[in-house]
Design a protein that fits this description.
The protein is mostly helical and 345 residues long. The protein contains 17 helices and 2 strands. Strands 1-2 form a two-stranded antiparallel ribbon. Helix 1 crosses helix 3, helix 3 packs antiparallel against helix 17 and helix 6 packs antiparallel against helix 7.
Amino acid sequence: MTFMDYLRERLPLVEGALARAAARPMTDGTVSVDLERYLYAPLARFTSGGGKRVRPVLALLGAEAVGGRPEDALSAGIAIELFQSAALAHDDIADESELRRGEPCLYKTEGVGLATNMGDLALTQVFEVVLADEGLDPARRLAVLAELVRMERHTLEGQALDLGWARDGRWDVTCDDYVYMVTSKTAWYSAALPLYIGAIAGGADKDDAEGLVDLGLHAGVAFQIQDDLLNLVGNAAAQGKDFRSDVAEGKRTLAVVWALEHLGEAERGELVALLESGTTDEGRLARAVELIEAGGGIAHCREVASREAIAAKERAAGLERQGLVSPEAHELLDSMADFFVQRDH
């Protein structure tokens, strides 16, 4: 079975749980109609409206990898997906983005104040959904909650670096700086913690499951670098107005950082000017990508993404050799790493 097969097979389980987890007003009084309009309904639409559900499915895979049932990790997986909703709602405000999943961002349709509040609600649901899971014994529930806190802290650190570098006009960011930032901002909550939390919920000893964190961090970095590449040189039709938005927003991606380190002074200055301009002109965006490619940024990203995926697969093989994951899980983890670097959207 490939990871995509597994994703399709487990998707109904996740979607059903996500629908059941949708929050409702704490009153049935007359203001409940307004609460639905200003808080609950828009957040539910936003959460249900997109994404492949990779993160919650990885939590299910983590549980099954150590001999548990997928249902054991369902609340943990839904918690991570709700955190994703909160992060995206808040990120779009911070980045002043226009589109999310091809639609106007939540703050564009609901206003900054209400969208911020909706993201805050999603953050409270992260913990509510786990606390309500009576299928998890109290000790495992507490362990899952502790790991969710660790995941959130890592993500916030990565976001602080990403936003701070942009605010201060920093173009002295190194490739190592970028990898640390993206490991914190993306890899922890996109792969490492879903697998690890799923394994804990599925009954694994925390020390035995720790190898899934290392595997997931490598896979998560590969995932983000591939995401950066697709934004620059992927399928423009599939991405619509999101295509090359990283250039328009002046993102310090690995491709940009590498190119700035390897371009000549004149070309480096031109690329920085384009990145700082906020341009959405297709010709100028294309010129920025030309410069990134001339500086070796595209090729370097492909090399690093491939290397990180290979490292993840090596960790999966090691976990099977130690008897910590099943052969079937090893196969799925390998396929997951390949999927992360071979996807085209």
